[in-house]
Prior knowledge:
Layout: E1 5-10, H1 14-25, E2 30-36, H2 39-49, E3 53-57, H3 65-74, E4 79-84, H4 89-98, E5 102-105, H5 110-121, H6 129-143, H7 159-169, H8 174-181, H9 185-198, H10 204-213
Parallel strand pairs: 1-2, 1-3, 3-4, 4-5
Helix pairs in contact: 2-3, 3-4, 4-6, 6-10, 7-9, 7-10, 8-9
Amino acid sequence: MSERLRVLLVDDHAMVRSGFAMVLSVEDDIEVVGEAADGLQAIEQARATRPDVVLMDVQMPRMDGIEATRHLVAEDLGHVVIVTTFDRDDYLFDALEAGASGFLLKNAGPEQLLDAVRAAGRGHALLAPEVTRRVIGKMAAEHAAPDRPEPAALAHLTVREREVLVLLGRGLSNSEIAAELVLGEATVKTHVSNVLGKLHLRDRVQAVIYAYEAGLILPTED
């Protein structure tokens, strides 16, 4: 990743792109390197500009944000953050499965936008409880198989790693997991890395999905 975070804005509404660009461009550590009005343009721009972060709308002409995300992740063309009005939960869950690193609401304030871009640029998944857990919980409930056995890969986890996976699934940060399990943050970071490695998961968002789909967390859990 370059010293300044390179950001690509993808939305079929020019006003939305302009608004995001105004907020991002005044920051010393962020550079808007391109804009796109649909998924096909997003792929072209990402290949040309090599962004660190792509702010991606979902519903767009020619190619939607889900398919574009799938292509960008496959080619390792930046961390994709889905920008949504939150009106189609199924689209959002599909985007997560396609490899998106998280969500940003279109009505987010400037500070939330900056935090989201910086977090994604550092490789951190965005697990905002009011968004990610609602979407994943709902979709996991709809696709749940009541008598499905646990995935065999869970047997490779230690008892502590399994506990960490459950807390990851609830959207807890490393510091929150450390407090819950009375561990140091460095130790938690090691456990998280072990969980992701053993289960062949790309990031924390995939860990959340895995925890729900494996039945470790009930979609109705608070």
